[in-house]
Design goal:
By secondary structure, the protein is of the alpha+beta class. The protein is built from four helices and 13 strands.
């Protein structure tokens, strides 16, 4: 009996030793199909910008928004959602579709990337299967192609909002983690969630058809400091470890709820326009 007990103890020690030796190293990345806690935002991990093109009279767009949220639940802080209302489906129409959620930056992006179908998404402004705007069936594959790559930059955002003037000022620090020989630009976008307004819908599993009168629009692009393409950050190349800063200001419309607003900052290659890093922070 004593001998059997000894074998059991040894077996348990081996099992616990195996578990301890295989502890996952940081940064903690969420495996495909496995929801989990968001990575620590102080860790230097690659973050992906997911720009979804939509409109309030697009019947398939609620389904696209639900799929995007599922992806957000899966990838956590490594996926940043942005919803661009542009194209004919975003045009104001007869009641209850009189709202105008278009922006100059959104219109410019929609035209530049020649978006033809809605919903569609561009992942880090990087081509996947030779395309920029992607059908929803490609979204996760495009994310998977990028999300586990080593980060090439790290972004820190400091914000100050004056509730009296409704002026938002920001200071951003970008640390490059790799050597680059090209120029880089930086963008500052303002997003708002919690916007209740009508939305066309053809999926009864999501809500009433053909109209959801109290639909919640999330991650909506409201404004962009320096426009869709931002401003110059570096020229002539950078070295790993190099840090640079940039400032911006935005004025929040009286109709926008600052409690539901976020700032998205991202750095991209000025030639290819591919995004190397993105970051998000709440206004309040």
């Amino acid at each position: 009996m004593k001998k059997t007990t000894t074998y059991i103890v040894l077996a348990l020690m081996i099992v616990f030793s195996f578990i301890a030796c295989n502890k996952e190293k940081e940064p903690f990345l969420v495996e495909e199909g496995t929801p989990g806690p968001d990575p620590d935002t102080t860790k230097k991990v690659r973050k992906i910008l997911f720009e979804k093109f939509t409109g309030h009279t697009c019947v398939n767009c609620p389904g696209g928004a639900a799929q995007a949220q599922d992806l957000k639940n899966q990838y956590g802080e490594q996926l940043i959602l942005l919803s661009v209302h542009a194209g004919s489906f975003a045009d104001p129409a007869s009641a209850p579709y009189t709202a105008d959620y278009r922006t100059q930056a959104g219109n410019d992006l929609n035209a530049f990337y020649n978006v033809q179908f809605y919903p569609s998404a561009i992942i880090n402004r990087t081509k996947y299967n030779g395309m920029f705007p992607l059908f929803s069936g490609f979204w996760q594959d495009a994310i998977e192609a990028l999300v586990n790559l080593p980060p090439e930059a790290h972004i820190k955002i400091d914000l100050d909002f004056d509730s009296g003037t409704r002026k938002l000022t920001g200071n951003v620090e970008v640390e490059f983690l790799s050597d680059f020989s090209c120029d880089y630009n930086i963008c500052f976008y303002l997003l708002e969630s919690g916007i209740i307004s009508a939305q066309k819908n053809d999926d009864a599993n999501i809500g009433p058809t053909p109209d959801i009168l109290d639909y919640e629009h999330k991650h909506m692009l409201r404004d962009a400091a320096f426009g869709a393409w931002g401003t110059e950050l570096t020229t002539g190349g950078v070295s790993a470890g190099q840090t640079t800063t940039a400032d911006f200001t935005l004025n929040l419309d009286l109709g926008w709820n600052e409690n539901n607003c976020d700032v998205v900052v991202f750095v991209y290659n000025a030639t290819t326009r591919e995004i190397i890093q993105a970051e998000e922070k709440s206004v309040l």
